[in-house]
Amino acid sequence: MNQTLKGFRDFNPEIMSIRSEAISRVRKIFKKYGFEELQTPALEYQEVLLGKYGEEAEKLMYLFDDPGGRAVGMKYDLTVPLARYIAQNQNTPMPFKRFQIQPVWRADKPQKGRYREFYQCDIDTVGSASPLSDAEILAIISEVLDSAFGFSKFTIKINSRPVLFAAMKNANIKKGQYNTVIQSIDKLDKKSKDEVSEELLQKGLVKKQVTAVFKAIEKAQPDAYLKQVIKYAKNMGVKNLEFTPTLARGLDYYTGPIFETVVDKPRVGSVTGGGRYDKLLGELGGPDLPAVGTTIGLDRAVDVITELKLWENLQIGTRVLVTIFNQELFDKSLRVANTLRTAGINTAIYPNPETDLKKQLKYADKKKIPFVVVIGPNEAKSDQIQLKDMSTGNQETLDIQGIVAKLS
User: Fold this and answer.
1) Containing structural domain, residue 119
2) CA 128 to chain centre
3) What is the pTM of this model?
4) Among 33, 258, 287, 328, which is most buried by a count of CB atoms within 10 Å?
5) Is there a contact between 375 and 357 (Cβ–Cβ < 8 Å)?
6) Could you read off the pLDDT of 58-90 as tens digits, one per residue?
């Protein structure tokens, strides 16, 4: 069967160039704020994954027995594996500021902006209960989306689990029902209020409770901790924050502030999501440490970049094709290619000296390589090189130093 699985994708070189550049820019900002890189395995024991996210999330996990009969699963996110890592490495100096850029897997229903294999770019601070740590995460989100990706219109929505818990308490909802109610409220960006209300009734709430919880949420205000987070974030230059009392974040492990980011266009869902989770490490048998973090969804971010054509003028692929005029001039072309590569210029050399020059130029055009180098007999004699700009058709004759200067 010559096709990919639903929700899984191939990435052509053009898209991979954008993805690789996006990762490079994100990694640079993460490091600028003092975060260090971590990687964890694709597979975890099921006991590590289960019981941390909630029933609805667990339905989307890829769980199976491996050939050795071990119950394992493909990681659903990067947060639980981080918690497992800390539990396993309790001598890690605290606070631990880590970032992680890796794929995760969810057996979700494929649709625009939602895939079964996708990359998360995570940052987390473990071992700090300060609102400054939450605010720093928000500052990084803002800088990545604005400076690194070039998004002009986005909103960082922020709320807090204690704010939601207080609303549910006021609606006389039992504490044991808090998480299941949150999972339903979290769907308000996809479903209507009536649809969510019906779902809550099916979960055992009475109509009076449903009405009361919506009313309490609509009137909610930031608590003292969240006010501090917002204050610090604004002091760090974050301008596009919006307190959103209906923001819930469906995963069970959140304990404090929660946040998501949406772009005005295109409609791809949230491009970032995270919050504070102060109990998760203890639940995994590790130290009882506070933690806060977020994920930046690489796939949705790249969808936005490509759909809005934000990086159309970005030169990150092959910059120049060195052609081969004939077999006698092959060595000359090879030396020029090596010189360009030594100068840090992405250079391809046409591999077949028997292909005529016209076909080589067509190849460069199809590959969207912006410049072509031609070294014919006349150029070889005078130690000159002909450089053709494929976008304008203009040609100029330069020596190798001039070519390096031009292409740099």
Assistant:
1) 13-307
2) 24
3) 0.86
4) 258
5) no
6) 999 999 999 999 999 999 999 999 999 998 999
